[in-house]
Records
---
Amino acid sequence: EAQVTQNPRYLITVTGKKLTVTCSQNMNHEYMSWYRQDPGLGLRQIYYSMNVEVTDKGDVPEGYKVSRKEKRNFPLILESPSPNQTSLYFCASSPLGTSSQETQYFGPGTRLLVL
Amino acid sequence: ELKVEQNPLFLSMQEGKNYTIYCNYSTTSDRLYWYRQDPGKSLESLFVLLSNGAVKQEGRLMASLDTKARLSTLHITAAVHDLSATYFCAANTGNQFYFGTGTSLTVIP
């Protein structure tokens, strides 16, 4: 089944404790992206990647890191989480970025609470 | 930075009625997307609109795009309860995507 998976689905942590949220897709998509969803703000793009070893900042990259060492994986790293990073996070993938006629396929989401 | 505005933010409508959700975007975009999100769930793609005048329909939902007005609409025909969800539009500049704040639709029997 074609899908985007994220782990963990739920995470409670404390300020300053490094964490990683994994994202994996099995559709051989070049483009992958991370978003955060907050009430009243819609989804905001954190980082995106056009291919292996190619990443770029989205609208709200502060406090986050990403890496793309393999095509299928795009982990989101919070080196020192703060309470304002409490949010619902979505990973998404798409073939060939915006040159494609296809849309983005979203993972199930990771709900993060930073105390 | 591209800004995407949706209205209304909240919509309560009776079954069988028609209504339209509006999506305005501030600068030129390659394409316009519509997504649906059910409570506690992920986003599901509804439509991708590629060019001026594009119209796509799926069941009771029809989306259109006017690139000159920088406006997309999502028209709901004869609403049914199953359409209750939050609807997002999104636009892109290059490889960056910008989402509207969403329209929470409740269809009342």
---
Amino acid sequence: QPQLQESGPGLVKPSETLYLACTVAGGSVSSSTYYWGWIRQPPGKGLEWIGSIYYDGSTYYNPSLKSRVTVSEDTSQNQFSLYLDSVTAADTAVYYCVRQAGEVLGGHWFDPWGRGTLVIVSS
Amino acid sequence: EIVLTQSPGTLSLSPGERATLSCRASQSVSNRYLAWYQQKPGQAPRLLIYGASRGATGIPDRFSGSGSGTDFTLTINRLEPEDFAVYYCQQYGDSPYTFGQGTKLEIK
């Protein structure tokens, strides 16, 4: 199993852009077997899939966030990143990066998960 | 989008008992594309089951999944103290991928 580690600011001001990176160890973001994605969890609440990227650069987003989200990858660093524009307090959450199974494995479950990083949106 | 409703919201049981958790979908989940996760406080979710009934690597066989269409079940036999946690179902048959609101399994 690869290990995933999120990094980025823990505090973002309203209306600014949230940026997080996920570094993958023991696996490759260039693999055609998997996608790489982001999921968030507001404090005390449930889980929301944000979006994913495939090795060829194709991206898939939750329509509820699509207008504000960009997921990108840096194969040279074996990383992928999340950009969320125009954040508000409602975007305060623990953000997890995940490996997502691809079609060759028979579906799109999420395993493993990073440990998560809390991002607070506040002035 | 497919809405998943989990029941009960909270389940109170004792170690050694069997837990039965339900996940109902607002429309049929294609190909039994449903997963279950366990989340303990302060930790990331961990995959337990995928494909409705296939155990993830390293998951004890007391965890089992069943169901198809709109009704799915996670069963935990002979509850161990470490099994008390929150459990989420997730469908990946249709984008956007969605999760249930969770069932909290607590010690009675």
